[in-house]
Amino acid sequence: MATISDVLTASAGNWTLVPDRSRVTFRNKTLWGLATVTGRFTEFTGEGSAGAGVTGRVVIPAASVNTGIAKRDNHLRSADFFDVDAHPDITLEVTGLVPSEAGATRLTAVLTVRGVSKPVEIPVDTQAVDDNTLRLSGQFEVQRDDFGVSGDLLGMVGPTTVLSGELVFTRD
């Protein structure tokens, strides 16, 4: 099995996210933990660079949120949640990729939601699909209140959101 150093060496260069081969999803408990809301973002762009280190940026228009229920999606776009009129984009600025135990890797990044930026670490699986395609898959949890995403009527919505992504990049 290739180590992260092997993958980085083989992947040196600039990369562009392929949205139609990628996905960004979320899930959050609601109804006092009795149900789970799942959704996805239907639009996003990104680029990255690998070599001595890894950097990158993924931009997600918050208005592209889709849970399959239009009324809920409109509420998520409102000032109660994402406030897309004032804060149209969610961004993830990748600052590094570091190995961890058992050959796994972690992305170090800064997540910005509603204008609030917080450092995050994301455990990821990195796979070179072929010479020109790289796939990063991972998930992590955030506390909604840390980013000013409230919208919690009577304590119905759980405080933790799980964000997941499978991002496919092609070499420039």
TrEMBL record:
<dbReference type="Pfam" id="PF04264">
    <property type="entry name" value="YceI"/>
</dbReference>
<comment type="similarity">
    <text>Belongs to the UPF0312 family.</text>
</comment>
<dbReference type="InterPro" id="IPR007372">
    <property type="entry name" value="Lipid/polyisoprenoid-bd_YceI"/>
</dbReference>
<dbReference type="InterPro" id="IPR036761">
    <property type="entry name" value="TTHA0802/YceI-like_sf"/>
</dbReference>
<protein>
    <recommendedName>
        <fullName>Lipid/polyisoprenoid-binding YceI-like domain-containing protein</fullName>
    </recommendedName>
</protein>
<feature type="domain" description="Lipid/polyisoprenoid-binding YceI-like">
    <location>
        <begin position="14"/>
        <end position="170"/>
    </location>
</feature>
